[in-house]
Write a structure and sequence with these properties.
CATH architecture: 3-Layer(aba) Sandwich
Shape: globular
CATH superfamily: 5'-nuclease
Strand content: 15-25%
Number of domains: 1
Structural class: alpha/beta
Number of strands: 6
Distance between the termini: 20 Å
Order of helices and strands: EHHEHHEHEHEE
Largest sheet: 6 strands, mixed
Strand order of the largest sheet: 3-2-1-4-5-6
CATH topology: Rossmann fold
Number of helices: 6
Amino acid sequence: MHVVAVDANALMLPADQDLRLFAELERLLGDYEAVVPRSVRDELAELASGAGEAAAAAGVAADLAADRCGSVETEESYADDAIHALAVGEDVDAVVTNDGPLKERVLDAGTPVIHLRGRNQLTITRP
């Protein structure tokens, strides 16, 4: 079974891009387990407390994280650093993110990145 760390912006894709995130992960990986660091959950909660479309998308993302993803603890309090630490520590097989700078950091750590290709499909980029 593949273990994938999911970043906040990836969890927001279902609301932002009408992407069936978990169906796409299953299509790409087959059997997988999605995990989310505490700092990503905190980031989503903070974003969801605001107003507007981003807050609504963050609220949907927080619900998805709670319903579909396991929690994982890291020492890092910043969400991107927590995701990167999971990649560096080889705690995950891939990272799901659409954040350009984070993608580069994760690929540099030798971990594949799953990201949006086109409007509503995911693809894998390997280091």
